[in-house]
Design goal:
The complex is a heterodimer of chains A (347) and B (313). Chain A has 347 residues and is an alpha/beta fold. Chain A has 13 helices and twelve strands. Chain A is globular, with a radius of gyration of 21 Å. In chain B, helix 3 packs parallel to helix 5 and helix 4 packs across helix 5. In chain B, a hairpin with a 7-residue loop joins strand 1 and strand 2. Classes of the chains: A alpha/beta (347), B alpha/beta (313). At the A-B interface, helix 8, helix 9, helix 10 and helix 11 of A face helix 5, helix 6, helix 7 and helix 10 of B.
Chain lengths: 347, 313
């Protein structure tokens, strides 16, 4: 598979009054052509910061890319000038945000908002751009596009607004689409429609999607691959089946077992104890160690490297070290691992 | 555990806003159900369906337009003396969605928790008040050092624990939890849900759990009610509702939830709900009817007969 984007050893810090917050501490991943990569993790794990860095949307006044490369189309986005970045944003890489009301301009007709990137990047005439905008509105499933074109955001429902935001993001057929919790603010039935729409459009225009969410149900629905972030690092990455049925990192175990499934009725939910690490003073060892029931002495002292589980599956936990003791994952995870083995044998 | 004793009875409750104006909203439109002592009743539905309004009307944050809410057999709404109202307010408490917005940022945690204790005179001395606060903090998994801090010094999960401690301070029988975990991270959600379950077991609490996250609702609830446009369309025991959803809206809602299971997701077929499938006419008597023991559905007489032959075996 062709790599469309490579992130290498990315470090990002924020300078605050209380000191330097090391929000991203060495993130590596690739994005393949046409795939959907989901990034999951709790608030503060660095998932949004990583993707904002790809778009260079972090505030320059207090944030800094300390090290690392973001390779896209032979260019390093981390070092690109503002002007060059403006040419890319919305054309090659675009982004959908969580709240469609705040990402649309309430005083501008939605037609004008869709035309904006088309005129800027594709240098079309106004009438050609309008034709294209109406096409896109139709593509994202908005009825009466000619009428809707002249309306303002407040005349749209939440789901329809998110469709408009998607239309704007896809107006120039970007190679990469970053969706930061695009369905979190929506109801389940609307969420289902938007997810179906995104999958459908992805096939039509062959774009790669980075999908940020904390809803593992949504991840299971949309993702081809999943990256799990914790404390500013990717702790596990693999195909969606590998992450859901054969997770290796204790944090992934915790995430998966803390979600009730339809048959986990009477057993107590597995809750990850404690709270996320303070990245103002990042821990010396594995950031998850203080909350990890399986932590060993080395977890507190040294950060684990990425161990290879399969060609597509990597996890950063000392438990995968050849000398590590064998541990029993939580029951919910064991059940999934059994299913995984059966699936493999079934194939 | 759940009993068959009715703690709360909601009878033909209506809550309209902007009555008589062009923009009249029938947020809750004639719903009836009971909540049994010791159970957790989940209330689900899309935003705007009236589930939060129902909760708020039950606790008298809104004055009901029509209908009754009986708590322990006594009407919640209607004229009450100050003393009666106070007594009622102690028995019924609420936990809100956003713990940031529901805690006064200028009050110390100890004062937030003890506010109810002070109002109801539940502590005889300063020492007793302090002891109660510490006890409550420990019950919800915080400790006594937290008592002198302000809400902004806590994380979201911890703040929600403070909200729970405040609700528990006056020793209520019934707690309405309006989306108590929606604003929290997945790993923290499990902590709060486990805490709520534990407290229910220890103190015999009754919950009305309002949420839109259906997998969590199924996990915590004994029975679940589904609301759609101000109406309760289905009410059944949690497992029954998931295994045999009868109302087409419930079927559509359940088929829209993504589950953390890629294999299931690949095969999930989403159903859409179109209210016109019912083809109700003017003289159809559309009511909330019992199709199977304990399983109620909003339906016409014709549908009722059909559902009964189809599902009640």
């Amino acid at each position: 598979m062709e790599k469309i984007l490579e992130v290498k050893d990315l470090h990002i810090s924020f300078h605050t009054f209380s000191g330097e917050v090391q929000a991203i501490r060495g993130v590596n991943f690739d994005l393949l052509k046409g795939e959907t990569l989901a990034i999951v993790g709790e608030s503060g794990s660095g998932k949004s910061v990583t993707t904002k860095a790809l778009m260079r949307l972090l505030p320059e006044s207090n944030s800094e890319i300390k090290a690392g490369e973001i390779l896209f189309d032979g260019k390093d986005l981390a070092k690109l000038s503002d002007k060059a970045m403006q040419k890319l944003r919305g054309k090659e890489i675009s982004m959908i945000f969580q709240d469609p009301m705040t990402s649309l301009n309430p005083t501008m007709k939605i037609g004008k908002q869709i035309i904006e990137p088309i005129v800027k990047h594709q240098k079309l005439s106004k009438s050609a751009a309008k034709k294209r905008a109406i096409e896109i509105l139709e593509l994202v499933g908005i009825a009466n596009p000619e009428v809707r074109f002249e309306q303002y955001p407040h005349q749209f429902s939440g789901g329809m607004r998110q469709r408009v935001v998607i239309a704007i993001a896809l107006a120039c057929n970007p190679k990469v689409l970053i969706a930061d919790e695009p369905t979190t603010a929506l109801d389940v039935t609307i969420q289902a429609q938007i997810l179906e729409l995104m999958k459908d459009l992805q096939k039509k225009i062959d774009t790669s999607i980075i999908f940020i969410t904390h809803d593992l149900g949504v991840v299971a629905n949309v993702a081809d691959r999943v990256a799990v972030m914790y404390g500013g690092k990717i702790v596990e990455i693999g195909t969606v089946d590998e992450i859901f049925y054969n997770p290796q990192h204790p944090y992934t175990w915790g995430l998966i077992s803390s979600m009730p499934t339809l048959d986990s009725d009477d057993e107590e939910l597995y809750a990850i104890p404690g709270t996320p690490p303070d990245l103002l003073h990042p821990p010396k060892g594995d950031a998850f160690a203080p909350r990890n029931a399986y932590a060993m002495k080395i977890d507190l002292e040294k950060q684990p490297p990425m161990y290879k589980v399969s060609d597509t599956h990597y996890a950063a936990t000392w438990l995968l070290h050849p000398d590590a003791p064998k541990v029993e994952p939580p029951p919910a995870v064991k059940r999934r691992q059994r299913e995984f083995l059966e699936m493999k044998e079934g194939n | 555990m759940a009993t068959t004793e009715k703690l709360v009875e909601i009878k033909n409750l209506k809550q309209y806003f902007n009555i008589g104006k062009a923009n009249e909203v029938r947020a809750v439109n004639d719903i009836s159900f009971d909540i049994y002592r010791g159970e957790t009743l989940g209330l689900v539905g899309e935003s705007g369906c009236g589930k939060s309004t129902t909760g708020r009307t039950i606790i008298r944050l809104y004055d009901a337009t029509d209908g009754e809410v009986l708590f322990n057999g006594v009407n919640v709404h209607g004229k009450k003396s100050k003393a009666e109202l106070k007594e009622f307010n102690r028995k019924m408490q609420m936990i809100f969605q956003d713990p940031q917005a529901s805690l006064n940022p200028r009050m110390k945690v100890s004062d937030i928790i003890a506010e109810g204790i002070d109002i109801h005179g539940l502590a005889k001395s300063k020492e007793e008040r302090k002891r109660r606060v510490v006890e409550l903090l420990e019950t919800v998994g915080l400790n006594k050092e937290h008592a002198n801090r302000y809400p902004h010094e806590f994380s979201g999960g911890q703040r929600q624990r403070i909200g729970i401690a405040r609700a528990l301070a006056v020793e209520p029988e019934f707690i309405i939890a309006d989306e108590p975990i929606s604003a929290l991270d997945v790993s923290i959600q499990a902590q709060v849900v486990n805490l709520m379950k534990k407290l229910q077991k220890e103190k015999g609490l009754t919950y009305l759990f309002i949420a839109h996250d259906l997998s969590m609702v199924k996990y915590i609830s004994d029975r679940i009610g589904v609301m759609y446009f101000g109406k309760l369309v289905e009410l059944a025991p949690a497992d029954e509702l998931y295994q045999n959803p009868i109302h087409p809206y419930t079927q559509s809602l359940l088929s829209a939830i993504p589950l953390p299971d890629p294999n299931y997701e690949r095969n999930r077929k989403r159903k859409t709900y179109n209210p016109s499938v019912h083809q109700y006419t003017e003289d159809d008597d559309v009511q909330f009817r019992e199709v199977k023991p304990g399983h109620f559905v909003q339906c016409s007489v014709k549908e009722w007969e059909q559902y009964k032959t189809q599902y009640a075996k």
